[in-house]
Structures
1.
Amino acid sequence: MKVALLTMFNGLDSSYSLVNVVAEQVRMLLDANIETRILVSDICPLNKLYGVFLDKRIKWVKVCNHLNGNQMHWKNYTHSDGEVHDTFFEEVDAIAEDLVKKLTDIDICFMHDIHYQGWHLHHNIAIRKVQDRLPNLKFLAFTHSAPATRPPNPKWPFSARYTPMPNTLYIYPTQSGIPALAKQYNVPEDRCRVVSNSLDILSFASDEVKLLAKHIDLLTSDILVVYPGRLTASKKFDKVAALCGAIKKNHDKDIKVIFCDAFPNLGVTPDTYKNFVRSTGVNFGLENDDLLFTSDIKESLKGFPRKGVLELFSLSNLFICPSYSESFGLTVLEAASKGNFLVLNEQVPALKELGTNLNAYFMKWDAKNFGYSTRETYLPSEEAYLTDHAKNIVKLMDNNQVLHAKTIAKQRYSPQWIWKNQLEPIMRSLTEMQKV
């Protein structure tokens, strides 16, 4: 499949929100190994590309924006009647002739505000001429602003802003706008679809976090747990794994656990202890691939950077600290500052003090107190204890508006989710669509 994005951009300044929307779509298409072209105005500079626009797989295509050697100056035709400038239809023909050459082998063309914006009226008319000559070409017409109110009797060529085109689906970023979109273009609502704008959080991430994302899913799980610490038995990594297993087993939650471990200090080899932690998690309900030690990644053998941990906390939503002993618990503050639900060991004085100030959820694990240690016995069993608390934790997290928003924002508005659940199915249906 070959896809072209008809943008007619005169520049690629990221302060223009539509440039960012196009960049996200380009990334989705490239990740799906779809041949991608971006059509821009012939005055658009391409010497300062950035981000995904640097990808060598993109084919940049400049579209005619000159007539008889003179640059076309676009006019904002938002009215429904009147006159166009003298060279308007000559410009239309020149643009159409150029677009036919540049779209002749394309399967689907994404049009960004081409039908909507008054500034693009001559491109709007031109693309209709193109379709007459390329009848197998399919279109997705994206509208990125509130749909215009349809006037009672618009006159040609101004009526093109309110006239549907064959083999075209009309796209809006929210479901609430679909009725108004259908009215503007005079199409039934089943000719309209939703493709939300996406938030590519990982595009802003450090190289360390991007590397980690290649080894474990950071975006789509219902619960993401990050637990940084020195690889020692006193940090109780196995208790984190056990509680996460109980959550997954009993509450139909997809959960991922990342241990940012470093500087092992164990009576056994690090691999032996990590295998014990993994097996504990699996015994309580996790899958093997739900859990990752950053030290298992070659590039992170010497430890995962603290800055990267803070980034991960901005993606995670649950922090569990069953540590045997803490003098303060700085990671608790770090996790709290990034909007995580806190589960702390009540038996450790420092964690009890800090957690009380932070309104944390408390559980009881073995602990070292001042001058003595405590050891927990769970009746009827540790599994029952974890199951009860897992129920409470999940209920509290589900009812927390901030956590809900944080989780949904990264789950359902990631480029991966938008592609899989919205854009790819629409493209597939479009290729199967008969001319209407």
2.
Amino acid sequence: MKNQRAESQLREKDNEKRKTYIREYMKNKRNDTAFRGRKNQKKRRKKISDVIRSFHKNIERGPEYVCTCCHQLWFRSSVKKGNLLVYSHCPQNIVKLCLTGCKSVDNEEWICFTCDSNIQVGELPSFAKANKMNFPDKPEVLN
């Protein structure tokens, strides 16, 4: 009985210590956040403008890179140059199906990261042209 009472008192003391610690922690956190918020407001504004500028720079050239495998249009940040040497460890039948010789920007063959990652693991990309996943021809009225 004494042991149970002693254990109960220890638990209560631990709980009080824990509650006090949490209260102090939250109080300090609120104060720090308010201080940091005022102090770094100009820096944050500058960072946002930098991010916007970076975004505009990244999309400066539209999605004009054509993936040689899926023939979809991509931004430069989503493609890499298609190089046969990179896929020397991959099944060559899949590589031959995917690297079709379709060239776009700078007369280079580009491959999107999605198709590239599928080829790297030895799979035919689900949107590959070789998988009969191609876009319909452009209607004449859109010319």
3.
Amino acid sequence: MSYISIPVVTEAMTDQLRHCLKDKDPYVRKTAAICVAKLYATDPRRAERGGFVEMVRDLLVDPNATVVSNAVAALSEIGDRQDGVTFKLNFRVANKLLAALGESSECVPRAVSLDPLKPTISL
């Protein structure tokens, strides 16, 4: 549904998306993270005002590596759509991302680039 960029569909999906981002099933959470990126592409203001970008940031410390991978991919896609967006990560989140690199076959290795000279990770 997130690929249908009609305002009525976008509005109808936001409540369900909020629940999916907190679902107990990791498959649902990882899919919801990508849906937030699609929502941002369709309606950035709704995604920001609704707290969806923050909810995806929270998924960066999810216990499931695939969820973390999709959260990184979603935030990377969001960052590509808006100039000057930099996501600053703390030590705990950076460690989680490093752990996810070894556990996931998804796109984390491509989406994350760590520069030891900078204290932030830009997505």
